[in-house]
Design goal:
about 80 residues; mainly beta; 5-stranded antiparallel sheet; 5 strands; about 30% strand; KOW domain-containing protein
Length: about 80
């Protein structure tokens, strides 16, 4: 069984896998930003365009830093 991750387990720059299977890089941490939304979120860059980001709760992500680096730089995304 997978251990639930917290924001401290996903530092900026960490490689993660989203629930849909896309691999991306953590670019920002966001706290609870409204009175109705008390969840912390991790912003993940998942695409070739600058605005291809998703904000997900940390327990939905899986860290994949242990994978070997991809040729062509770190901005390349698995599909």
């Amino acid at each position: 069984m997978r251990r639930m991750l917290d924001m401290e387990d996903l530092p900026i720059g960490a490689r993660v896998r989203t629930p849909t299977g896309r691999v991306g890089t953590v670019v920002k941490h966001r706290g609870a930003e409204s009175k109705r939304d008390h969840f912390q979120r991790v912003v993940v860059f998942v695409g070739p365009r600058p605005r291809d980001t998703v904000a997900l709760q940390p327990h939905l992500l899986e860290r994949v830093d242990k994978c070997p680096p991809e040729p062509g730089g770190e901005r390349r995304i698995d599909r």
